[in-house]
Write a structure and sequence with these properties.
With 103 residues, the chain is mainly α. Helix content is 64%, strand content 6%. Strands 1-2 form a two-stranded antiparallel ribbon. α1 packs across α3 and α2 packs across α3. The protein is elongated and about 60 Å long. The termini are far apart.
Length: 103
């Protein structure tokens, strides 16, 4: 299975050639879900197994990174997402501590 996904990904180099997880699900015969969780899991598993520089390209899908700029955009996007998660986590913990004091 990983070999087939690897071959699909190798045909999609650079973000202008990205393939959606839905398209990969169809090609692989995976269940068609709203989030395509099965194909996303297999994409990242394949990237790890074969050492592929796979990146997600927003709503365009997945591709093999070809340029430093593509890697920079990917990292910038991930860093923003992590910062947003941390901000929410900090807010919840702060509010919880304040909530406990009111009891």
């Amino acid at each position: 299975m990983s070999e087939k996904i690897k071959n699909i990904l190798l045909e999609h180099r650079g973000k202008e050639n990205a393939i959606t997880s839905k398209q990969i699900s169809k090609a692989m015969g995976f269940p068609m879900e709203d989030t395509q969780a099965v194909s996303r899991k297999e994409i990242w598993k394949t990237a790890e197994e074969f050492g592929l520089p796979v990146i997600s390209c927003g709503n365009k899908g997945f591709c093999i990174a070809e340029t430093d700029e593509e890697i920079k955009e990917f990292n910038d996007n991930r860093n923003k997402r992590v910062a947003g998660i941390r901000k929410t986590q900090d807010l919840v913990n702060k509010n919880y501590e304040e909530w406990k004091k009111k009891k």
